Amino acid sequence: MKKKIFIVAPNPEFDFIIKMLLNQRVIFCSPKTSDDMINNEDIPNNIIANDLYVLKNGGFNAQVFQSVCGNIPTRLLIPDAFSELELWMKEYSILHEIGHYFSIDKKDIKNYYSFLEKNKLYGQLYNIPLEIEAEKYVYKNNKKLFKRNADQVYLNYYTDLKNNIHKIKNNFFEQVFEIRFYRYYAIIENVPNKKSKFYKKHKKKIKKIRDFLSNEKEAYKEIVEMIDNFDSNIYNFFNNNDFQLYINYCDSVYVKNTKTKNNHDNATALS
Q1: Residue 133 belongs to domain spanning
Q2: How many CA atoms lie within 13 A of 148 on its CB side?
Q3: Residues 164 and 250 both lie in one domain
Q4: Which of 14, 102, 147, 237 is most buried by a 10 A CB count?
Q5: How many domains, in total, are found in the chain?
Q6: Of residues 262 and 22, which shows the higher confidence score?
Q7: Which of 103, 129, 158 finishes a domain?
Q8: Are 157 and 184 in contact (CB under 8 A)?
Q9: Strands of 74-77's sheet, edge to edge?
């Protein structure tokens, strides 16, 4: 039986979130605020403490936390800052997280979750196949939302990096390479129609990011060039269920990063 989602959100957003979940036929419990969460007897205390810490620190729009382990409940966490978002971004954020929720119904994705948990592998590169699945869900259910998010967020990555790369101090490798380069590349290559103007527009911007990073530092160029083998590894992942080859590829990128600064940071939730 599929797990219900425990929702922690700002009270003013309850109706909006419930409506979206009902529209997507998601099984969920009545939403609670973070204050109500403290006394929730259905969730272990250590998980409540973790979730409250995550919510307090914010820095995300919405996040699903889920596991293949039967005793770990599925939670959808929504910080107070969610209320300040534009309506379309609220809709996109929730739909993306619903994509994560349903992705675990697919045998290969469920097995991959299990693989990551069993081997305690943390890092955005490892999560990219999961992000592709979530974005495929958004694209399938609301192409306008997918394209609007891509145009207003992903399409600005180049300018963002060009203007701010030297100001990024925390989680540098994650913020620059894992998210704004590798994940962006993976989503554009694996979700939209490759014959569309939309795809071609984003491919041009990805090339600009690639050229910029390659010219920034010689060490960056080596990491950027490793994306040349990315497509074949993603293909093996989705078509041959070859998790180990993909993990080996991610590890090789992380090892290359150790030559520039530090190894990758520990766990980040699905986003």
Answers
A1: 121-258
A2: 13
A3: yes
A4: 237
A5: 2
A6: 22
A7: 103
A8: yes
A9: 5-8, 74-77, 63-65
